[in-house]
Specification:
This protein is an alpha/beta fold. The protein is 41% helix and 18% strand. Strands 9-18-16-15-10-12-13-19 form an 8-stranded mixed beta sheet, with helices on both faces. Strands 1-8-6-5-2-3-4 form a 7-stranded mixed beta sheet, sandwiched between helices. A two-stranded parallel ribbon has the order 7-14. The N terminus is likely disordered.
């Protein structure tokens, strides 16, 4: 769909880049290829090794038993173990090779070591906040329950000197971002999963180029998959000509690395250490509905001002340093001599897939477990492990009003089919499911009891919980909670309710797709 505003903003490429390499070299692509190779291998075994076929079958059985025992004794998610067992069954040779290739961590071992080193060296660099974790002083209505956990897993500090503004759509966030970028005097840091040339990125890039000419330090980091989908491998060099330091995070190297799924899914913007943005909104035209792909695109984001911005600055610098073997520079942190007390408490936090903490999932589960009245969730994907599904169902079964808003027009048919495999069980426990009729929901928001919320990049799926680098802001109290609540109430009114009857009437093909894909959900 061509829009009259399509040519607005700066461009460095003649046309937007699209490709299939991301699919081919994804873990799903490799599994499909290996499944085909396995079939060929079996045919050749029957043709060439007819007389020694029993040797092939016997040795395959022994190898499979050893692999199964190894798998069952490893620390891993039970659902993931089931997936690998199915792969062993379907591909007893190449499936086992794929598994050991993956667990040896050939590709991300160096990345994991870099990140661990950077995190360890930089964890104490933040200026101390005026409060810490649960040790809330003054007029706090009650302690921040999740504070000590986030402090322990990543030294994520709790702030009550920061203002939070919630945006219920990408258009609002984009307008605010442009306004704040215009005010930049010292530095601009951008870290986004997707950057795609068009009106949205063009309007941002125009300001970045001008600010760079004015002497503002500008850094832009995007996920390496962009080089196969929306940008070109030389895009960082093109940015360099504008005075902007750009880099892809973990560029894809086909068949060399094992971390195709360890992507930088975060969306962070930091300006002068005084303003930060996060949420689901990437830098591409569909996020502001300039380009229509799946009906109306609904997203959410927050703007934070105050001490909590330092945490987002640190998260950006950590990823920048880890991907380039550099160190974190303390000079970008801002310390207010007399911080103003705000009406809320904010804990910015990240989730690193290589530390096995599953921070994003545990924060969501903690909110579900503590809720007394309601938990409202917006997520584009619902691909749950057994622990998260149990937490959601248990909350509903003990009387909590649990509601989940999902896309009415999905962007991925496979993810949609997998989400629907959870519908029957969730509804049976009393969970209320909604589908956003106007289009696609990309928001990642959880609201609990008019008291606390999380807004960030973390979807309710395996990819966010296990594979991606993510970030979010935990918010307790204040006007932002009211803004989030109002957004949920307004969005409920635009949704169709999922019932047992609608689940029964689902298309047979969708049911079959979900049924088949369920066994490999952890790898999607």
């Amino acid at each position: 769909m061509k829009n009259k505003n399509e040519n607005r903003g700066m461009r460095l490429l003649k046309n937007g880049r699209r490709g299939i390499s991301r699919i081919i070299f994804s873990r799903m692509g490799i599994i499909s290829l290996l499944f085909l190779l396995q079939a060929v291998l079996l045919v050749l075994a029957f043709v060439w090794l007819e007389e020694a076929l029993h040797v092939y079958i016997g040795s395959t059985a022994v190898i499979t038993v050893i692999a199964v025992l190894f798998l069952l004794n490893r620390e891993a998610d039970p659902t993931s173990k089931i997936t690998w067992l199915v792969i062993f069954m379907l591909m007893p040779v190449l499936g086992i090779i794929l598994y050991f290739y993956t667990v040896t961590e050939l590709g991300h071992r160096a990345l994991g070591a870099n990140i661990s080193s950077v995190l360890e060296k930089s964890k104490d660099l933040l200026p101390p906040p005026n409060i810490t974790g649960e040790k809330v002083e003054g007029d706090a209505p009650e302690p921040v329950p999740i504070g000590d956990y986030l402090k322990s897993v990543g030294n994520y500090a709790c702030y009550n000197d920061s203002a939070v503004k919630y945006f219920s759509c990408g258009e609002e966030k984009h307008a605010a971002l442009l306004s704040e970028l215009e005010k930049a005097k010292k530095f601009i840091f951008l870290e986004y999963f997707i950057i795609s040339e068009g009106e949205m990125w063009g309007s941002v890039l125009e300001i970045l180029a001008r600010k760079a000419r004015e002497g503002v330090e500008v850094r832009v980091m995007y996920d390496g998959t962009c080089e196969f989908t929306t940008l070109t491998p030389d895009y960082a060099s093109r940015l360099k000509k504008l005075g902007i330091e750009g880099k892809p995070f973990s560029p894809l190297t086909p068949f060399v690395s094992t971390y195709y799924n360890f992507r930088d899914h975060r969306k962070i913007a930091v300006i002068d250490g005084k303003v930060a943005f996060t949420g689901g909104v990437n830098l591409a035209d569909e996020y502001i509905n300039v380009r229509s792909r799946f009906g109306h695109w609904k997203d959410a984001a927050v703007m934070i001002k105050g001490g909590a911005v330092n945490s987002f600055t640190l998260m950006f610098l950590q990823m920048w340093a880890a991907s380039g073997k550099k160190t974190v520079d303390e000079r970008y942190f801002v310390t207010e001599k007399e911080p103003k007390k705000s009406d809320c408490y904010v804990i910015p936090y990240g989730d690193f897939p290589l530390d096995n903490n599953k921070t994003g999932e545990r924060v969501y589960m903690d909110m579900l477990n503590r809720a007394s009245r309601y938990v409202y969730i917006m997520t584009p994907y619902l691909i749950l492990d057994s622990a998260m599904e149990t937490a959601i169902r248990f909350a509903a079964e003990r009387g909590v009003d649990v509601r989940i808003i999902l896309p009415g027009i999905p962007d991925k048919k496979t993810a949609n089919a997998l989400a629907k495999t959870h519908y029957k069980a969730l509804i049976s426990s009393g969970v209320k499911l909604y589908e956003y009729a106007p289009g696609f929901v990309h928001s990642k928001v959880v609201l609990c009891d008019d008291t606390e919320a999380v807004v960030g990049t973390i979807n309710m799926d395996y990819r966010s919980f296990y594979h991606n680098f993510e970030c979010a802001a935990y918010i307790r109290g204040g006007s932002a909670i009211n803004e989030i609540s109002n957004d949920f109430e307004e969005t409920f009114g635009k949704c169709r309710i999922v019932t047992k009857e609608t689940v029964k009437k689902e298309k047979p093909f969708v049911k079959l797709m979900g049924f088949i894909l369920k066994v490999i959900a952890p790898l999607m």
